[in-house]
Specification:
The complex is a heterodimer of chains A (118) and B (112). With 118 residues, chain A is mostly beta strands. In chain A, strands 2, 5, 6, 10, 11, 12 and 13 form a seven-stranded mixed β-sheet that branches. A four-stranded antiparallel β-sheet of chain A has the order 3-9-8-7, with no helix packed on it. Helices cover 0% and strands 52% of the residues of chain B. Chain B contains no helices and eleven strands. In chain B, a hairpin with a 7-residue loop joins strand 9 and strand 10. Classes of the chains: A mainly beta (118), B mainly beta (112). The interface between A and B is medium-sized, with 24 and 28 residues.
C-alpha cells in the first residue's frame, strides 16, 4: 500500500531563510507520480508540482526547488529566501499509475505547517 | 477558477441531519475523487468514481454515500451527522490518463 510521510509537523523560520520540507514515500509500484500542494489560510489546495517516477531530475521554479531521490524514496521541497506569503500548510502526495485504469487516488502526507515570521 | 465547482461553499447543520455536497468536475474529466480534511488533519481519501462507476473506496463511513451522474457531476451524501463530521470536504477531478488532478475550493461543513 502507498504511504506518504511528512515527519515535520510544523516549521517556523524567519523571513529570507531557506527552508526544506521533507517527504518520504512508500509504494510497491515502479510507476507513480509525486506531487506537492500548498494550502494557504484561505483553505484551497494549490498545485505546485508533479513528478513521475522515471524523471529524477531536480526542478527549480523561481524560489522553489524539488529534490527527487528514488534511492531514498524522498521528494523534498526547498523554498529559498522565504517570504511571509509562503506561510501555509504544504502537502506531499503520491499517486500510483495503472496502465488500464489510469489515474488512481492521491495519497497525502499529513502536511507540514510552515510559518514565515517577518 | 480551477474548473471544478463545489457547492455549497459553507454549510452549517445540526447533529442527526443529512446533507448533500455537490461537485461538478472540470470539462472532459471522467474521474471524481472525494476527500475529507478534518481540523488539523491531513486529507483523507473517501471515494473515487470514474465515468459513473465506483472505482476505489477509502475510509468512507457507512453513513456516507456518493454517486456520479451521467453528466459526470457527483454528489456526496452525509447522513446522521455527528460533531466529528465537521470538516472541509474537497472534490477533485482528473481526465484519467494524464495524472493531473484539479481540486475544487471545498465545502466547509460545520455540524452543531
Amino acid at each position: 500500500a502507498q504511504k506518504v510521510t511528512q515527519a515535520q509537523t510544523e516549521i517556523s523560520v524567519v523571513e529570507k531563510e531557506d527552508v526544506t520540507l521533507d517527504c518520504v514515500y512508500e509504494t510497491r509500484d515502479t510507476t507513480y507520480y509525486l506531487f506537492w500542494y500548498k494550502q494557504p489560510p484561505s483553505g484551497e489546495l494549490v498545485f505546485l508540482i508533479r513528478r513521475n517516477s522515471f524523471d529524477e531530475q531536480n526542478e527549480i521554479s523561481g524560489r522553489y526547488s524539488w529534490n527527487f531521490q528514488k534511492s531514498t524514496s524522498s521528494f523534498n521541497f526547498t523554498i529559498t529566501a522565504s517570504q511571509v506569503v509562503d506561510s501555509a500548510v504544504y502537502f506531499c502526495a503520491l499517486s500510483e499509475a495503472h496502465l488500464i485504469q489510469g489515474a488512481q487516488k492521491l495519497v497525502f502526507g499529513q502536511g507540514t505547517r510552515l510559518t514565515i515570521n517577518p | 477558477d480551477s474548473g471544478v465547482t463545489q457547492t455549497p461553499k459553507h454549510l452549517i447543520t445540526a447533529t442527526g441531519q443529512r446533507v448533500t455536497l455537490r461537485c461538478s468536475p472540470r470539462s472532459g474529466d471522467l474521474s471524481v475523487y472525494w476527500y475529507q480534511q478534518s481540523l488539523d488533519q491531513g486529507l483523507q481519501f473517501l471515494i473515487q468514481y470514474y465515468n459513473g462507476e465506483e472505482r476505489a473506496k477509502g475510509n468512507i463511513l457507512e453513513r456516507f454515500s456518493a454517486q456520479q451522474f451521467p453528466d459526470l457531476h457527483s454528489e456526496l451524501n452525509l447522513s446522521s451527522l455527528e460533531l466529528g463530521d465537521s470538516a472541509l470536504y474537497f472534490c477533485a477531478s482528473s481526465e484519467g490518463s494524464n495524472y493531473g488532478y484539479t481540486f475544487g475550493s471545498g465545502t466547509r461543513l460545520t455540524v452543531v
